Amino acid sequence: MRHARLKVRHRRLVNVSRKQTPPASFRPLLIATTNPGKVREALAILAGLPAILTTLDKHPELPQPIEDADNFMDNARIKALHYARLTNLWTLADDSGLEVDALGGRPGVRSSRYAGERCDPSANNARLISELSGVPLEKRTARFCCAIALARESSVLAVASGILEGVIIDEPRGTEGFGYDPHFLVPETGLTSAEMPPEQKNSLSHRGRALRAIKPDIIRLLEQAQ
Ligand code: ITT
């Protein structure tokens, strides 16, 4: 028991001593999302940026934006500008969702609120599966879409987007990821995005693609601002 406690203490000390102070030129970059799944993925994919990554956990008082655009990119811009103006930080925001062909592209920009205003992933999934009842697998094609915007003060400085194609299956599989992942099968892998280890999902996903596409712009803009 004591041994175990010492081990934990040792590990903590090692972690602390390894933690390096970021260079003074590094600026904070806000990952502006209230979705913990998005935060986890963004922090992993953006590791190594010349910035101090920070999240909305440190700003619980901020109101949420009104995302009233009819497309992912305009909503990403709305979110990034909203939080950039309120915090005065360089701000990265993502608007994303699932487009299902047999549902005419729904839930689309309403993905987080598909089953009602209060976001509840299991209710959203239940509605999705019930609306697809009777639709054969070959007609259940769908894609995850992600639009990302980087804003500072009142300007959007860079944008990028990414998609991941798949099909919707009735039975949920896997416990990783979040949202619609357990029902989203990526045929080339034979896995749902909830069955993929985080590194695999990040390497294929809509969010991974969008974040890797915008990363060089973020680096260039941060360096120019130094
Ligand atoms: P923020 O607006 O605070 O970022 P949110 O979750 O409401 O959080 P969106 O408005 O962009 O964000 O809605 C995205 C929804 O789309 C999300 O809640 C999921 O239902 C779904 N979604 C997006 N990316 C997903 C992913 O990688 N895996 C599973 N579901 C995803």
Structure description:
- The protein is an alpha/beta fold.
- It has helices at 2-18, 36-45, 72-87, 121-131, 198-204, 206-225; strands at residues 27-31, 51-55, 90-100, 141-152, 155-168, 184-186, 191-192.
- It is globular, with a radius of gyration of 19 Å.
- A hairpin with a 4-residue loop joins strand 6 (184-186) and strand 7 (191-192).
- The chain has a single domain (25-225), classed as Maf protein, CATH 3.90.950.10.
- The termini are far apart.
- The protein contains six helices and seven strands; from the N terminus they run H-E-H-E-H-E-H-E-E-E-E-H-H.
- Mean pLDDT is 91; it is low at 1-17.
- The site of inosine 5'-triphosphate has 23 residues, from strand 3.
